[in-house]
Amino acid sequence: MTETGAVARDESGTRTAVILAAVTVVAWVVLAALDHDGPGWLLLPILGAATAYTAWQAGGTSRTNTRAMVALVIGVLAILVFLGFVIAGD
After folding, report:
1. How far is residue 60's CA from residue 82's CA, in Å, rounded to a whole number?
2. Sign of the dihedral defined by the CA atoms of residues 66, 69, 74, 80, in that order
């Protein structure tokens, strides 16, 4: 935080969060396209948690850092979709 209370941008963290978000989306699409029904889906919450944590640390809730915010949303959605499938069962 700066003296004014604004959250400073973390460019390296933002870049890492965006890359993790892209990897999460690619894994999501590949698993869905292959209609994979096995342990490969465990990648989704792991990548989602890594993306959300990295985006949060990069200032993902700041309005000035929209790239980190988008990465944060992608990470949380990946986790929620996985939990939805687990709860729904077969």
Report:
1. 22
2. negative
- Look up tokens 């959250």; give the residue: 7
Q: What angle do CA 59, 60, 61 make, to 5 degrees?
A: 95
3-state secondary structure the chain: CCCCCCCCCCHHHHHHHHHHHHHHHHHHHHHHHCCCCCHHHHHHHHHHHHHHHHHHHCCCCCCCCHHHHHHHHHHHHHHHHHHHHHHHCC
Question: Residue 63 CB: number of other CB atoms within 10 A?
Answer: 9
pLDDT digits (tens, 9 = 90+) for 53-78: 999 998 877 778 888 999 999 999 99
- What is the pTM assigned to this prediction? 0.81
